[in-house]
Design a protein that fits this description.
It is a single chain. By secondary structure, the chain is α+β, with helices and mostly antiparallel strands. The chain has ten helices and ten strands. Strands 1, 2, 3, 4, 5, 6, 7 and 8 form an eight-stranded mixed β-sheet that branches. Strand 2 and strand 3 form a beta hairpin. 26% of the residues are buried.
């Protein structure tokens, strides 16, 4: 039986009821002290980069692109739709980002290019984001997709802000990788997992069963009709066009020698099991 995102959420017992996005204005600046007063927060961890208000189903990310010399020089950047964000080196809060959907938490981003960009060291509120992927470790390099920003919202940025928010590619990160993710709609992924669950369609592997709550809600989503063959925008039906696959099966299906169908991969797995 497939394990849905709701099942994962309930099994971890992390239900919360308040979402802070309902009380924030998109593209408005907020200082931490203003947020502290508005939401009556006494927790000192508000002044760290990743914070969850008590009793709220929200994770707040405070992102400063250019750090002061006394801070760890994490690489963070925002291009108007996609946020590249480095997690903590200890990795203690990585699960909050990776599993935010399964945990029933929205992911909110407060962004500034430098500490004194806005009055009172404030951040610009960019709205809700969704986890897309990550690479590396210690720290993990996250790719997050904006959900609330539209072109009209982006136009509220000044020309200087737009020019300074262009992603600087470093240490061999290729721009084509970023563009590939931009073309994908993260809401389709969320709907596909809601419909099909998080168990691999090909081999039956489930990250939650293997890794507990750390793995719950995690799986890759495979397009039965490859995006590379779209030839432009195309409507995608998450019921018939998308399926969940574990990382191994997803990589095998996309081997350059031949792109396999789900049924072909299932037959290969079944044949291997019979031989063993």
């Amino acid at each position: 039986m497939n394990i849905s995102l709701i099942d994962n959420f309930e099994s971890c017992g992390r239900g919360k009821i308040m979402q802070t996005s309902n009380n924030l204005e998109l593209a408005k600046t907020y200082s931490r002290k203003e947020l502290q007063r508005q939401f009556e927060i006494n927790d000192a961890t508000l002044f760290t980069g990743i914070f969850q208000p008590k009793g709220h189903s929200s994770i707040w990310l405070f992102v400063t692109k250019h750090k002061t010399p006394d801070r760890i020089d994490y690489y963070d950047d925002f291009d108007g739709q996609v946020l590249l964000f480095e997690g903590q080196r200890t990795g203690k809060t990585d699960g909050k980002i990776i599993n935010h959907i399964a945990d029933g938490n929205e992911l909110l981003v407060f962004y500034r290019r430098k500490k004194d960009e806005h009055t009172g060291y404030a951040f610009k509120y960019l709205g809700r984001f969704e986890y897309v992927s990550h690479i590396g470790n210690g720290p993990k390099h996250f790719l997050l997709q904006a959900l609330d920003l539209t072109r009209s919202d982006d136009d509220r940025l000044t020309e200087t802000e737009r020019q300074m928010s262009i992603i600087d590619l470093i240490e061999g990160k290729e721009r084509s990788r970023v563009q590939t993710y931009i073309e994908r709609n993260p809401r389709l992924r969320a709907e596909a997992l809601r419909l099909h669950g998080t168990r691999c369609t090909a081999c039956g592997f489930d990250f939650g069963e293997k890794y507990g709550c750390l793995g719950e809600g995690y799986v890759e989503v495979h397009h039965l009709f490859p995006i590379s063959e779209y030839g432009g925008e195309r409507k995608v039906n998450p019921t018939t066009d998308l399926v969940p696959l574990c990382s191994n099966c997803h990589r095998i299906i996309h081997r350059p020698e031949k792109v396999l169908s789900i049924e072909e991969l299932k037959r290969i797995i079944a044949g291997k099991e019979r031989r063993d």
